[in-house]
Every structure is written in C-alpha cells, then in structure tokens.
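Repro:
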Amino acid sequence: MDREPGGNRRTHFAPLADLNGKSVLITGGTGSFGQTFCKTVLDRYRLRKLIVFSRDELKQFEMQTSAAFRPHERVMRYFIGDVRDLGRLEMAFRGVDFVIHAAAMKQIPAAEYNPFECIHTNVLGAENVVRAAIRADVARVIALSTDKAASPINLYGASKLAADKIFVAARNVVGSDRPMFSVVRYGNVLGSRGSVVPF
C-alpha cells in the first residue's frame, strides 16, 4: 500500500486470477457475502458468465430485479439448487472456470438445534462441491470458512473445520491437476445477516 498525493492511502488489489472472459459460480450467492462478491467482480471484470447458485428463490428474484444487478443481466445466471444435491451441482458446474463456495448454515443456535441439517449442509455440502468440481474440471475452487473453525466450541465451528479439511484433502488428491482448491478463513462481517450489527 502506498499513498496518493494528499496523504490518502492507495489500496492495490492483487487479483487471484484474471477473471475476464471467465465463467464464475458462487454457491450461497444471495447471501450477504455472495451479493457483495457479485457486485465486486462485476465492477472489476468482464465476466463471460456469473452464476448465482442458491436455494432461496425470493432472494434470487430480488437480486434479478435490483438496480445493482439489472444492468448485468446478460452475464448473470440464477440457479435454484442446494449444495446437498450433488446432481444439481454437477449440472450447474458445467463450463464453469471458478467456483466460490459461500453456502453454509451459519446461525449457531440453529445449527445446535438442527445438527443433522448443519452437517448435511456444511460438511456433506462441501464434499459435494469437491466432487462436482472435479467431475466438471473446474479450474479453481475457493471455499469460505470462518474463524469459528479454529479450536471450535460449537457445531457450526466444528462443521466448518470438517469442511476445511475436506477441501485441503481434495487439494492433496488432485495434486498438480485441476481444480486448485483453497480455503479462506475470515471473522465477523460488519452488516451481514445475523451479525452484531445487522444487515
């Protein structure tokens, strides 16, 4: 980071990859992170296609009709689907270059009360993303994790730790072949749904 004239800091973003002309899919694309990610890549790159994969048809409709996304309707695609459904993921991943896996059951009380559902979404869903990405020959998969996965004290954290291990193991399985798997851990997101400061 350096400074602009006047002392303001200038931020340089080092892209993970050149997304121009690429097809990108984000699971959980209608969530707080997902929508922000979509806006960011649409502003910075000329994508061939951006696929929003989520199970919430109302949120998808709201995205489709919002002023932020309507100008990009030529490149936007909306897939109703659940990461628990391997077959649907395989269909959605066809022709995709990059996958961002942001879908998760993240509300801690809900995860504790519904442990089967949490495991199905966060752990088995991660396995499905890995399997679908390998079969579709996706170039790169980036999985979103959480600081709660470090020394977890609840089921949400434990399930995300298990998911992280699945993605790391997948990287070991494919070796230097595609896809490249990565995991990114971050903390609380200001203004996200269910955050300390609500969305």
